[in-house]
């Protein structure tokens, strides 16, 4: 009797539950109450109408996908809406991989077919997975099924390729699109900006303006990323002014990007000002400034800020600790670095990643403890990667430890046999010991394997344009003036007691030729250009793609004193703030 009564009430209860699910305000407890009410009143778990709305509600609230999957697994024939909701849920979760599995299950079923909503959700999951092969396969399926002309599918294809680092494919699709919206522009611009192609990102932003497309906060973040990559501080400042004007500066994500911009352009106190003015901060905000202070050579300030973060009872992330360990490394604080490493594991329960081990290898290496660094690598519970061995090789080069350098080289040639920087470092180490026959062997090996040395270049921003210089570069319109200024610089430096460090020229040539080579290094050429084209007292900012050599480091310290300029150099390893003949790195470079 009771069973029949429940059976008769089921349609009414079902309608009531569906109505509640469609109208209720977002709340996990209320959702679970509705779900429980439906079960208690005998509504079958495999009812497709109830399941559809339950799954949609669980996904919309970003609850663990186990809730949605439990309901989904009861269904015999889910609708396309339900399949799409499951794919969307996994795409937006921490683990997007099951989205592909769900899609393949749907593909195997013969009663339902993907629609224009399926592929955007699926491609979003693949972008998170950074699985370009899977993405290319789905791309071909969209073409075969006639969805490649849908703007939503096109946008997620552009995003997928950009997120996977295949920016040429993203741009090719972008160019072929007959209809583009702001999402399309942002996807391809961000792809270039985050994959080391800042010039292309800036060109697209200019093109976007010509076409009358108004940027939003995401565009600004991509633009700031490109400016940071190039060290284009003045352009970044103009972007900041624009953001204030249109009210985008209060956006948390944009504020974090501004901190990153100023830190990467060497204007760390502007980064600090942005941080101080933020109405709302998250751990990313604190981490951005901690890392920024560390790489700019203000390690003690970085550690002090970390202490404030802890006093605010915020939980540092694994990236925060990378910044903290980096600060210790660049300040020579070995014991403190290992203590922070211990606290990260024991107090915060953060399992160390390869980046944290790399920081400790760098910490020991910079302090000259190369044998301890090697022993630490051998005791690591994870397999050391090429970056770890490269860090050790760099330390061996600085501290002239050839035997251990050869051990690191052997590991690197096994892991990444075509990385040009490793050949250059071991060649330079041999050259510093006068072993020219070994230098010749290394260079012969490079030629036989098709490995080419990346040429050093330096960037300087002037009047919203970035100028690029190479060693001995004579392609610039101001070449004659630049080389006259270089001669003047070298003469003034000698009067200050400068003597070229010819040991930094790793070639078997005469001393006079070595001195000439040193004077033409790209950072010196860039500084000469900046001295000509900026007013006295104006800070000079240079971005170098390689590590600054010892001779240039010494010369720039003296240039800052002789010409009364602050010179900020960002090299491959860190920032150097030169002022009054001193450097912020205290020669821990």
Automatic annotation (TrEMBL):
Which keywords has UniProt assigned to this entry?
A: Repeat
Query: What residue stretches are annotated with the DYW domain?
Result: 497-589
Mark the PPR repeats by their residue spans.
Answer: 79-113, 181-215, 251-281, 282-316, 317-351
Q: Name one GO molecular function term.
A: zinc ion binding
Record keywords: Cytoplasm included? no
Q: Name one GO biological process term.
A: RNA modification
| InterPro entries per UniProt | DYW_dom, E2_motif, E_motif, PPR_At4g14850-like_plant, PPR_rpt, TPR-like_helical_dom_sf
Domain of life per record: Eukaryota
Q: Which family does it belong to?
A: Belongs to the PPR family. PCMP-H subfamily.
Q: What is this protein called?
A: DYW domain-containing protein
> What organism is listed for this UniProt entry?
Papaver nudicaule (Iceland poppy)
